[in-house]
Automatic annotation (TrEMBL):
<keyword id="KW-0735">Signal-anchor</keyword>
<keyword id="KW-0963">Cytoplasm</keyword>
<dbReference type="GO" id="GO:0070403">
    <property type="term" value="F:NAD+ binding"/>
</dbReference>
<dbReference type="GO" id="GO:0042732">
    <property type="term" value="P:D-xylose metabolic process"/>
</dbReference>
<dbReference type="InterPro" id="IPR036291">
    <property type="entry name" value="NAD(P)-bd_dom_sf"/>
</dbReference>
<feature type="domain" description="NAD(P)-binding">
    <location>
        <begin position="5"/>
        <end position="299"/>
    </location>
</feature>
<dbReference type="Pfam" id="PF16363">
    <property type="entry name" value="GDP_Man_Dehyd"/>
</dbReference>
<dbReference type="GO" id="GO:0005737">
    <property type="term" value="C:cytoplasm"/>
</dbReference>
<comment type="similarity">
    <text>Belongs to the NAD(P)-dependent epimerase/dehydratase family. UDP-glucuronic acid decarboxylase subfamily.</text>
</comment>
<keyword id="KW-0456">Lyase</keyword>
<keyword id="KW-1133">Transmembrane helix</keyword>
<keyword id="KW-0812">Transmembrane</keyword>
<dbReference type="InterPro" id="IPR044516">
    <property type="entry name" value="UXS-like"/>
</dbReference>
<protein>
    <recommendedName>
        <fullName>UDP-glucuronate decarboxylase</fullName>
        <ecNumber>4.1.1.35</ecNumber>
    </recommendedName>
</protein>
<comment type="pathway">
    <text>Nucleotide-sugar biosynthesis; UDP-alpha-D-xylose biosynthesis; UDP-alpha-D-xylose from UDP-alpha-D-glucuronate: step 1/1.</text>
</comment>
<dbReference type="GO" id="GO:0048040">
    <property type="term" value="F:UDP-glucuronate decarboxylase activity"/>
</dbReference>
<keyword id="KW-0520">NAD</keyword>
Length: 312
C-alpha cells in the first residue's frame, strides 16, 4: 500500500483516478481548490479511512509525506482556463514547481498530467512524442499550452538537476461521466444540448478533428505509466480513432435519440484543425492501448448527464 497524492483529485479525471487507486488498496490524499472540481465527485469516499480530502491551492507551498504524486491540478476546458489566464499560468508553473519541490524533499515519484495541447495546431499528423509542436506563445490558449510546456520543462530539469523520479503523460481529449455540465468542452456541450433538445453548437465548419478517449482507459494508462520502471516519457495517452465535430454531433444525436438541430458558431482563435495521437510508444513501453470505442463510451456519458440534469 502506498500513500498517494492526487492534485486536482475532485475534478473529472482526478476523481476517476482516485476511485482506481483506492480500489487498488492505496491511501489517497486528494487535494483541490474546487475551481472546476466538485466535492460530490469524491463524496462517496468521505467515510473511507484510506481517503483524505484537502482544500488547497497548488500555487501555495504545502508540506506532506507521500510516496507518489499525480499532478492534475489545472482547469482543462478552454472556457475555464481562459477565465483567469494569469492564474492558469501560476497553477501550471508555480503549482508544478511546488509539487516538484515536495517530490524532491520526500523522494516521491511524480507524474505530470500534460496535454496534447503542447503540440499546438500540429503540422505533423498523427502526433508523435518527438514532435516539438506548433504553438502560438501570445494567443488566448497560450496560458494553458505554454503553461503545460513549461511544466514539462520543470519536470525534466528537476529530473536532471535533482534526480527527481518523474513521469510525463500527454493526455489527448478525454470524456466520460463527471465532466461538469458547464465544462464547455465539446462532449459535455453536445451531450447537454442533445438531452435538453437545444441546438448543438458547432464551432466553425465542424470539419476539425479530435480523437476521444474514454476516461477509464485513460486512468489505466496513467497508472501504468506511474508504475513503469526505466521509462519516464513523455508518452501520449489517447484513443487514435479520429472524428470530425460533425461526426461527433451525429453520434450524440443518434445515441440520445434527440431532435436537436445543428447551429454553426464562429471558430475560436487558434483552434487546432486536427488532432490524433500516435500511441506506438505507450503500446511498446506500457503494453497499453484504449479498449472503449466512442460508440461504447457515449451511452454511459449521456446517462450521467441525464441524471445530473434531472437532479438539478
Ligand atoms: P477538471 O477541470 O475537471 O479538473 C481539474 C481539477 O483541478 C479540478 O478539480 C480543479 O478544481 C482543480 N484545480 C484547478 N486549479 C487548481 C489549483 N490552483 N489548485 C488546486 N486544484 C486546482 O479537468 P480534467 O479534465 O479532469 O483535467 C485534469 C488534468 O488533466 C488537467 O491537468 C488537464 O490539463 C489534464 N488534461 C485533461 C484533458 C481532458 O481531455 N480532460 C486533456 C489533456 C490534459
Ligand atoms: N515546496 C513545497 N513543499 C515541500 C517542499 C517544497 O511546497 O515539501 C515548494 C517550495 O516552497 C518551493 C518549491 O516547492 O517554492 C520548490 O522547492 P525547492 O526546494 O526545489 O526550491 P527552493 O525552495 O530552493 O526554491
Ligand atoms: N467545439 C464545438 N462546439 C462546442 C465546443 C467545442 O464545435 O460546443 C469544438 C472546438 O472548437 C474544438 C473541438 O470542438 O474544435 C474540441 O473542443 P474542446 O474545447 O472540447 O477541446 P480542445 O479544443 O481543447 O481540444
Amino acid at each position: 500500500m502506498k500513500r498517494i497524492l492526487v492534485t486536482g483529485g475532485a475534478g473529472f479525471i482526478g476523481s476517476h483516478l482516485v476511485d482506481s487507486l483506492l480500489a487498488q488498496g492505496h491511501e489517497v490524499l486528494c487535494l483541490d481548490n474546487f475551481f472546476t472540481g466538485d466535492k460530490s465527485n469524491v463524496a462517496g469516499h468521505l467515510g473511507n479511512p484510506r481517503f483524505e480530502l484537502v482544500r488547497h491551492d497548488v500555487v501555495e507551498p504545502i508540506l506532506l509525506e507521500v510516496d507518489q504524486i499525480y499532478n492534475l491540478a489545472c482547469p482543462a476546458s478552454p472556457v475555464h482556463y481562459q477565465f483567469n489566464p494569469v492564474k492558469t499560468v501560476k497553477t501550471n508553473v508555480l503549482g508544478t514547481l511546488n509539487m516538484l519541490g515536495l517530490a524532491k524533499r520526500v523522494g516521491a515519484r511524480i507524474l505530470q498530467a500534460s496535454t496534447s495541447e503542447v503540440y499546438g495546431d500540429p503540422k505533423v499528423h498523427p502526433q508523435t512524442e518527438g514532435y516539438w509542436g506548433n504553438v502560438n506563445p501570445i494567443g488566448l490558449r497560450s496560458c494553458y499550452d505554454e503553461g503545460k510546456r513549461l511544466a514539462e520543462t520543470l519536470m525534466m530539469d528537476y529530473h536532471r538537476s535533482n534526480k527527481v523520479d518523474v513521469r510525463i503523460v500527454r493526455i489527448f481529449n478525454t470524456y466520460g461521466p463527471r465532466m461538469a455540465v458547464n465544462d464547455g468542452r465539446v462532449v459535455s456541450n453536445f451531450a447537454v444540448q442533445a438531452i435538453k433538445e437545444d441546438p448543438i453548437t458547432i464551432y466553425g465548419d465542424g470539419k476539425q478533428t479530435r480523437s476521444f478517449c474514454y476516461v477509464d482507459d485513460l486512468v489505466a494508462g496513467m497508472i501504468a505509466m506511474m508504475e513503469a520502471e526505466e521509462f519516464i516519457g513523455p508518452v501520449n495517452l489517447g484513443n487514435p480513432s479520429e472524428f470530425t465535430m460533425l461526426e461527433l454531433a451525429e453520434k450524440v444525436i443518434k445515441i440520445s435519440g434527440s431532435r436537436s438541430q445543428l447551429e454553426f458558431k464562429p471558430l475560436p482563435p487558434d483552434d487546432p484543425t486536427q488532432r490524433q495521437p500516435n500511441i506506438a510508444l505507450a503500446r511498446e513501453k506500457l503494453g497499453w492501448s484504449p479498449k472503449v470505442a466512442l460508440e461504447e463510451g457515449l451511452p454511459s456519458t449521456l446517462e450521467y448527464f441525464r441524471s445530473v440534469l434531472e437532479r438539478d
